[in-house]
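dude i think i finally got it to work??
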Amino acid sequence: MSQEFIEIRGARENNLKNVSLRIPKRQITIFTGVSGSGKSSIVFDTIASEARRQLNETFSTFVRNFLPRYAQPDVDAIENLSMAIVVDQKHLGGGSHSTVGTITDIYSLLRLLYSRVGQPSVGNRLVFSFNDPQGMCPNCNGLGRKVGVDLAAFLDTSKSLTEGAILYPDYAIGSWGWDILPQSGFFDMDKKLADYTEDEMDLLLHGKPQKVKTQFGGKSINITFEGIIDKFSRKYIIGDVKFPPSERTKKSVEPYMIFGPCTLCKGARLNQKALSSRIDGRNIAELAAMEVDELIEVIRAIKEPAAAPMVKALVERLQDMINIGLEYLSLNRETDTLSGGESQRIKMVKHLTSSLVDMMYIFDEPSIGLHPRDVHRLNELLQKLRDKGNTVIVVEHDRDVIKIADHIVDVGPQAGNRGGEIVYAGGFADLLEAETLTGRFMKESMPIKEHFRQGKGKLSIVNATLHNLQNVNVDIPIGVLTVVTGVAGSGKSSLINQTLVHQHTDSVVIDQGAIGTSSRSNPATYTGILDDVRKAFAATNKVNAGLFSFNSKGACETCQGLGVIYTDVAFLDEVKTPCETCGGKRFKDEVLAYKLDGKSISDVLGMSVREALNFFSIKEVVRKLQALSDVGLDYLTLGQPLSTLSGGECQRIKLASELQKKGSIYVMDEPTTGLHMSDISNFLGIINRLVDAGNTVIVIEHNLDVIKNADWIIDMGPEGGNKGGRVIFEGTPRELLSARRSLTSAYLATSIY
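look at this
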């Protein structure tokens, strides 16, 4: 059978320069190139968008009104497309009622299993659903938890009442609430709360309302004493629906509230009827709380003949989760707590059991969040999808994923307006000989750093037990670059992002959270550059600064500052045309007449970062522009909508913005996400400048080049979930090479060419 191809001719989306190429069908094609070179413009904005648009056109006009709309991409022709399934990095939402079990349909199979063979039999599978009135706990409505009081925030048990043990302001020393306590005669005011008996503490926290005599204004009056927690709960948690607290009051009491386990279902989410049904002595909530690699063995042990089809299906689904490196998750884990990488791999699992073939699967950097040990699992999944007769298209920077490609398309040569071209298309072996950035860096590997900075003190974490952390004690050196490594789920984020940052609230945290990407936000607005530019225009021209905002007074009245007009034509794609009044410049004519050193506000927004650095002398503007240049974004125009940027570009804009904040501790969670191999040295230069300026930088990372350049390594593991949560190694990268228990050590050694 002759090879078929997806044919693209004349693609011009975003920065693409009339790109034409052929992508082999039923093979793995990997798109590489520096961040911002145009990979996503080809794969997502052209191929995926057109495939989805054409699929939607097969539905009736009535149905199309309810479907998402995809604009026709700027391309001359695309031929031989298959139906596209896009697996992106977007976090799975769904709120508290969406879990790993529900999103993968594994919990649905589990419910079916219990409805058929659970003893005693309590009804159909809806009885085991915490999202259905038949199954949900009546006390918490299936959430498994209720709002309670955070005792750690409310009380300091190392103090006595006289010393201010109650931290809530209504009970500050000398306040009306505090005065009742000594006058009640119930408490030893000088005894530390840690030394209170159980009965004494219960009276203080949950004492029933009772009248006590107190002195007020020289008179004896009766006042009602009530346990401080019960009183707080009555006022702010249970509350009065007729007289709800003001927004200001809500904000003031929120720090003292916490979600606690439901007192009836103990976090199981289900009612007592559903929890009474068991298989081999376990109820469905106990199975949902198990980690996947433990659960699969429990399911395999079920020998009831009637359960055989369900057991087979469950084992297959659970094995898929293990194969993709998610064995440490439990089915009751809420989906909005998953990282972007975990969300993406959960989406992959849903497609592995599909019997559909000749589909087009499109992946956006699926190796994100994966330890080098687990990349082979991802590769096997991609190959499995291909071998079933599907076309697999992947945007990727990871060397080990690129190696398995049947076909590679390298986009470049640089980013932005210096990119948008196909610089290589072919096999892996020929890529290594190609004169492209990807070809060159595929053959290069950074050496391990020879000289390591010495710490100037330490940040101590003592007896950390959050999530899967197993009583962890670790010291993080001050004034150096510390990289925290370990397989997914080993406890890295729990240790740093939650435990350390909670202790050091002044830390500057640069996480994986997405930045707002609307057509009204751009590099100038996001970094605050535009605020200073508007003030400069206003001062020079002696007018209001609001005139120089396309989101405010200066906006073109026809397009409302968008620069384009959207025309809704019912079920057809929305038509976007340049605004005829402002010509796409977004501002009123009168605003464009005002100049700063000969340039209008529209001219300034049309400048690249590189051009703006040469134009401006305003100290604050230059500092912010330099930060954008330092992270390799000097080609972006100041007014380019963030919605048109790639994931890697958005990550670096966020990095540039956060690095402007003054702090002494910087925490970064996988900051190399979306960065090409050639960008890593640039990134390390920024980090080293931060450390050399006296800051402490802590990076959670899987990238081996970053690990090699650390001053100190903390390796978590040995595995994920309840098999992790321990510090496996502490020391320099050189010392890590000889750490036998560390999985990171083995992969670090193989990366040294």
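The chain has a mean pLDDT of 90.
im so relieved honestly
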